[in-house]
Amino acid sequence: MASHLEGVRPISMEEILEARRRIADTIVRTPLVRLDLGAGFPDVRLKLENLQPTNSYKIRGAANAVALLSPAERARGVWTISAGNAGQGIAYAARRFGIPCTVIAIETAPAAKLERMRALGATLIPVPYSVAWEALERRSFLGVEGAFVHPFDDHNFIAGHATMGCEILEDAPDTALVIGAIGGGGLIAGVGAAVKWRKPDVKVWGAEPETASPAAASFRAGSPQEFKAWKASFVDGAGGRSMFPRMWERLEPLLEGSIVVTLEETRNAMRLLAEKSRVIAEGAAALSVAAALKQHGAGGPVVAVVSGGNVDLPKFCELLGPGAI
User: What is the pLDDT confidence band of residue 1, given thresholds at 50, 70 and 90?
Assistant: First the structure.
């Protein structure tokens, strides 16, 4: 199916502004708040996408992508492949249009994400991570029909995420650096497109866990790479097995690179967000904060995208440790 795909092209500012108008009644314009840690720390601002209706930024792209399907495409229903957040976003958008939604769901996803997808009306087909990753590359899954919405390599999906970049620069015009987690790469591809269109001097970085950092490897090599030492972890919403060539084509012109964060740094960032800001962040969302805390001398505010808060509460408490909150 890949041979029939439209070629990768830059997302225009016009497309971003149109997406912003299109999804305005579906998403929340999330706040940008200061993480006040006192002297000796970078000026970190938190873009709280965990406050979206599905507790994840993915609703931005999903709402835009589903709205742009033709009536005939929507009549056939939609389907996607997801560890939870994209599935929730697409199920939410599908419900607004009254159309069926199927999610090829990674079976090790947190129970909270699986339950939320079902509650939104999605039909789930649980599969192992490796099967889901292969289906993402093929863009097909035996027995599933309808309009496929790719959870990251989709122009309209990424244009929806780009609306976040507009909000960031409106709320903090002096932003020096923006960081967002990389799973497939759709989040930071969108944010980077909007930020670079409006303020080319602002630096844009990805963030990945040490157990799954193909983007960092790709920037080091100058080409899309596989991460052969991939390991599953509590950071289930970021860090893939490989960098898709099409996503590398999108990311390479926009990003400075990808910052690799340890699992302990990620866990500490989750704890810090809970203690200082009363924010529940899933592992992938804490990556950007952990990376932002290293950005001394940035020359201005460092914006960390808190991409989602869909984490099982017992697991959240276990990760933070006894008495952490």
Answer: very low
